[in-house]
Amino acid sequence: MKGIAVCLSLLLAAGPAFAAPVAPKPVSSKKMEASMVLGGQIEVDEQGLVRGYTLDKSEKLTAKLREFVDANIQRWRFEPTLVEGKPMAVRNRMGLQLILATQDDGNFRIELRATNFYREKVDKDLADAEVVRVSMKPPMYPRQAADAGVEAEVYLALRIGRDGSVVDVAVEQVNMKSLASMDDSSRWRRVFAANAAARAREWTFRPPSRGEDADNESWTVRVPVNYMLGREEEYGVWVPYYPGVRQPVPWLAGTELGSPEALADGGVYPVGDVPGRLRLVTPAKADG
Predict the structure, then answer these.
(1) Number of domains the chain is built from
(2) Dihedrals φ, ψ of 15, to 5°?
(3) Residue 1 lies in a domain
């Protein structure tokens, strides 16, 4: 999940005197979906085969859910990671987005919809070779959205200039976690998108000062901004999921970025080729 394909996620506090979220308007069972994002570590050998993995807070997950994740991970194959032309074993952080959807017969289906892989932490020896956050004050919760009890997650792509300022902001996707009305979903997406983008333009970063990318004119990172009303999102719990349409990043036209939805809150994730970041070869999408 790192490189210069970054997604950083901020958890926002709603602030004092904000109303609790209202229940979303009932929708057809065919459209009902819920999302869960899991984190963990994965080890891959020199041939690109999974050597082992762990899930964060696995005790919070049901046995069937752990079995579903295990069945998917065991079939994964990765591109061998080369260092100076030689394959090497690699350990990455990973993010998994699971989707729970209703079927026509009323039963539920679990789907592994998105994955991301990234180096665990920026080593001190490598810190100067990556984009690092300096100041990222979270946006204020939109008052009208708070009053309506509406929650969302906004996925941003940011282009960082050589002075560390944000040169461009693109809103890749806005997913709703709750809705006052399905009919108002487009309006609420615009409200959250504008709110997150406005604050992002004030953020500052430290560009890489050495390494292959040090001479770039700009760098791109991804940042998820999580709008929750007066509470933190509990790990291992299904969350209502109303996905928005993915939008291209204008300055990265033609670049395949993959979904940002499995990127964990609280990180900065560079976009692009990053040494030591795993590349999945087998399809990640699977049902169960």
Answers:
(1) 1
(2) 95, 170
(3) no
